[in-house]
Design brief:
Order of helices and strands: HHEEEEEHEEEHHHEEEEE
Low-confidence stretches: none
Largest sheet: 7 strands, antiparallel
Distance between the termini: 45 Å
Number of strands: 13
Shape: globular
Strand content: 25-35%
Radius of gyration: 20 Å
Mean pLDDT: 97
Length: 281
């Protein structure tokens, strides 16, 4: 290791600066959403089988809820603009704007060049968890999704029921795409109910048993028309490993709710980002 310079402690003591202060972001009208949700009626539901994934569709102005129904289970969530799959959830920008773990009021932002809210979290029954003594929190946007390529790289596996493959199959089935075409649209996820963080010693991504229990849910308001896909991770509650045929796994429930006509007043979907895309030319 390189020898420390004499001013090493002084360099480490420099105070951090938030990269993207978010106090200038447009505020979601949570009170409006709550009023609209009160009389909303369920219009669809999808059960996601263990070690599998399923797609669902939500119109702008509707709500969707992801629930634990039988046992502790985490899920990997992808979102796309229903009419243009090139606009998809951008976990990295969402993390930069809201932090490593999401809860009520945080928004899921879309990819370049759109960069607008796709969905807003309006209810989180695990918001009490906060951050534990290990630095772990719930609903992260730091993990990429369990995938067969990393499994093959680390362990020489050919494992087909990881979240990446589950999401690929689900999107192919929903859209009629080939597996290879659908795979190109699968992207980094919101890890719903997953409890994760980074170790202080090595900075490695860790997971631990999720605090989720049947009845817990995470609910969203759809800011634009959405196509979603959710994988019930083969790691179950991710207390030991995330690509496993041995872990106890349970289904997840997705429900879609439509508010009454006029319940949202003058609300409209957010426009795409206003940058002129000239890039200095």
């Amino acid at each position: 290791m390189t020898q420390e310079p004499e001013d090493a402690d002084a360099r480490r003591a420099v105070k951090p600066v938030i990269c993207y202060p978010n106090d200038s972001l447009p505020e979601p009208d949570l009170a409006l959403y709550a009023r609209a949700r009160e009389a909303a009626r369920k219009v669809d539901e999808v059960t996601v089988a263990p070690r599998d994934a399923a797609c669902f569709r939500v119109k702008a102005g509707q709500f969707f809820r992801i629930s634990s129904v039988e046992g502790p289970q985490v899920g990997d969530l992808n979102l796309w603009n229903e009419s243009d799959l090139s606009e998809r959830f951008y976990s990295g920008k969402t993390r930069a704007l809201h932090g490593t773990h999401l809860s009520t009021k945080a928004r899921m932002w879309s990819s370049f060049p759109f960069v607008r809210p796709m969905a807003t979290i309006v209810e989180d029954t695990l918001d009490w968890y906060g951050f534990d003594e290990f630095g772990g929190g719930v609903h992260d946007v730091i993990g990429t999704r369990c995938d067969p390529y990393t499994g093959n790289l680390l362990k020489g596996l050919q494992y087909h029921y990881c979240c990446h493959s589950n999401l690929t199959r689900a999107l192919a089935d929903e859209t009629g795409m080939s597996l290879s075409e659908a795979e190109g649209h699968v992207h980094d996820v919101l890890n719903v109910f997953m409890c994760t963080g980074f170790t202080r010693e090595t900075g490695q991504y860790f997971m631990k048993a999720s605090p989720v229990r049947p009845g817990d849910h995470l609910e969203f308001f759809a800011e634009i028309d959405l196509l979603g896909a959710l994988s019930a991770c083969p790691g179950g509650d991710c207390s030991s490993e995330h690509s496993s045929d041995a872990a106890a796994c349970y289904p997840l429930l997705v429900e879609v709710f439509a508010p009454d006509d006029g319940a949202l007043g003058e609300w409209v979907s957010p426009p795409v980002n206003g940058y002129d895309r000239s890039h200095g030319r």
